TrEMBL record:
InterPro entries, alphabetized: Ald_DH/histidinol_DH, Ald_DH_C, Ald_DH_CS_CYS, Ald_DH_CS_GLU, Ald_DH_N, Aldehyde_DH_dom
Residues in Aldehyde dehydrogenase domain copies: 46-505
Phylogenetic classification of the source organism: Bacteria, Pseudomonadati, Pseudomonadota, Betaproteobacteria, Burkholderiales
PANTHER family in alphabetical order: ALDEHYDE DEHYDROGENASE, ALDEHYDE DEHYDROGENASE-RELATED
Name used for this protein in its record: aldehyde dehydrogenase (NAD(+))
PROSITE patterns per the UniProt record, alphabetical: ALDEHYDE_DEHYDR_CYS (PS00070), ALDEHYDE_DEHYDR_GLU (PS00687)
Organism: Paraburkholderia tagetis
GO terms for MF: aldehyde dehydrogenase (NAD+) activity
Protein family (similarity comment): Belongs to the aldehyde dehydrogenase family.
Domain of life from the UniProt record: Bacteria
């Protein structure tokens, strides 16, 4: 049986692998009765399949943790807390730097695993690895600089006392992530949590957990002390056990808004600190003065990167009447030119720019939403194509819907697949009203040559991050997070560190 260290190639995966239910204090822990894991395929609570998204083949199995293992992992993190939170930030920073170096050195293997289980094209998989390394580097530098950890004096209107504010690690952090950017969402949580002095229990998505198993090995190899980072595996039932655990002090969750609501309710029980990065239904606005070629390129990237499985997908495209026909003609050419295909190793299609969806269930879900939307009055403007050579992988052709009614679910709901809607507008006020007509508020993109108009859009669009004439650039220095149903709290940046710290104050008599 292959181990996690050897599974990052399709050849090794052909023999199948079973990933342990948990990794506690650096030690993989198998589920009870796991010896016969492969004979229990029907039992979703013990092990679920991991797929090669490009071929549809089952390449391994992920065991699920039970309540006892979740408890053991949280207790291990709790025990490790006293020592880790008092470790000097500079020492934590050196370990984070080492993790960034090891990620970079292992780039090919990590990207290969992303491509295997998510079907990402090589460029997208490589960007994810770079993003993860950059995040560890950023928080390493914050730790090494130490300023972010120093107490700050308060100016008080009373010279008989002094005041200071200081920051302390929140405690044990439960980190729960989805499958669409497993390396990235995990790095965005683990790096600031460790920087802050929190110990963690991570629960990856059972569909893409091999990536996090590899990351956990890297963290171990970097020399992070045992029990500071622990892993429990499984689906929502394991996540729920984790969020309910009384020794968890902080939950950072990335996933759907529906699950986020349950997480928030669970957190309320013990008043756990909570950061929620949830769904979106974001807009891309093309003004009449826009460079249409650039607008098309940004629309393709915003809607079809990662086969549209992005919280930040700008799947509501608003185009000014004056450039609508020109935009649609160029958009159609670009969408028809998208090469949908497998990208992983032996199946490499060097021209593939869009991979498959993550699994059959996700494709079925997206297709059902599309059918529902079409029945309710939306119509397809044009479609890309899927080559027959794509075989049994979870592929789907990119699809563009024109002028759907504003109450159509394809316009209002997060589809999480390669489906974009286009609508025309006549005035900026109309475009902003249409863009803001949603309870989500994650991101927005504006394409315009007019800087003053861009400034107005930036302030009037209800979104955590607005891109102006750029692709979806994300830097660890800039925060990430949404308004409304897109979540609460911010990741990345200094705020990302602070989200794993308690802000405290002291006032002392000068005498
Ligand atoms: P999901 O909500 O089904 O699952 C996300 C994670 O939460 C998984 O690990 C899952 O096992 C776990 N989970 C599910 N129910 C839970 C519960 N009750 N308690 C605790 N944990 C639970 O989401 P998904 O389908 O894996 O991911 C897609 C969603 O994630 C989309 O809505 C997307 O917009 C969102 N997302 C948001 C961001 C962001 O930064 N805002 C980034 C990536 C993905």
């Amino acid at each position: 049986m292959a181990t996690i260290s050897t599974i990052a190639t399709p050849a090794a995966c052909e023999s199948g692998f079973v990933l342990p239910a948990a990794t506690i204090a650096g030690t993989p822990v198998r589920a009870r009765g796991a010896e016969d894991t492969q004979d229990t395929r029907g039992d979703a609570h013990r092990a679920t399949p991991i797929f090669n998204a490009s071929t549809g083949a089952t390449i391994g199995w992920q065991e699920h943790a039970n309540a006892a293992l979740v408890d053991e992992a949280v207790r291990a993190a709790h025990t490790a807390l006293a020592s880790w939170r008092t470790t000097a930030p500079a020492k934590r920073g050196k370990l984070l730097k080492k993790i960034a170096e090891l990620i970079d050195a292992d780039r090919a293997r990590l990207a290969s695993m992303q491509m295997l289980v998510s079907g990402k094209p090589p460029l997208e998989a490589d960007i994810d690895v770079s993003d993860a390394a950059a995040t560890f580097n950023y928080y390493a530098d914050l730790c090494l600089d130490a300023k972010a950890f120093a107490p700050e004096a308060l100016a008080l209107p009373d010279d008989t006392v002094t005041g200071e504010r200081f920051y302390e690690a929140v405690g044990v952090a439960a980190l729960i992530v989805p499958w669409n950017f497993p390396m990235v969402t995990t790095a965005w949580k683990i790096a600031p949590a460790l920087a802050a002095g929190c110990t963690v229990v991570l629960k990856p998505s059972e569909l893409t957990s091999p990536v996090e198993h590899m990351l956990a090995e890297i963290i171990n190899e970097a020399g992070v002390p045992d029990s500071v980072v622990n892993l429990v595996n499984g689906g929502g039932e394991v996540g729920a056990l984790l969020t309910a655990h009384p020794l968890v002090d902080k939950i950072s969750f990335t996933g759907s808004t529906a699950s986020g609501k349950k997480v928030m309710q669970a957190a309320a029980q013990d008043m756990k600190r909570v950061t929620l990065e949830l769904g979106g239904k974001s807009a891309l606005i093309v003004r009449a003065d826009a460079d249409v070629e650039r607008a098309v390129s940004l629309a393709v990237g915003g809607a079809f990167t990662n086969a549209g499985q992005m919280c930040s997908a700008t799947a509501r495209i608003l185009v000014h009447d004056d450039v609508y026909r020109k935009f649609m003609a160029a958009f159609e050419t670009a969408v028809r030119a998208i090469v949908v295909g497998p990208s992983q190793n032996t199946h490499v299609n060097p021209n593939a720019t869009m991979g498959p969806l993550v699994c059959a269930a996700q494709r079925t879900r997206v297709q059902a939403l599309v059918e529902q939307g079409l029945r309710a009055g939306a119509s397809v403007a044009f479609l890309g194509s899927v080559d027959h050579a794509c075989g049994d992988g979870f592929f789907m052709a990119p699809m563009v819907i024109a002028e759907p009614p504003t109450d159509n679910l394809l316009w209002t709901d997060e589809i999480f697949g390669p489906v974009a809607c286009v609508k025309s507008f006549r005035t900026d006020e109309e475009a902003i009203a249409l863009a803001n007509d949603t309870r989500y508020g994650l991101v927005a993109t504006v394409v315009t040559a007019d800087r003053e108009a861009a400034r107005r859009y930036k302030t009037q669009l209800r979104a955590g991050l607005v891109w102006i004439n750029t692709p979806q650039l994300i830097f660890p220095q800039a925060c990430w997070g949404g308004l409304g149903l897109s979540g609460t709290g911010r990741e990345l940046g200094l705020a990302g560190l602070r989200s794993y710290q308690e802000l405290r104050h002291a006032i002392a008599d000068v005498g």
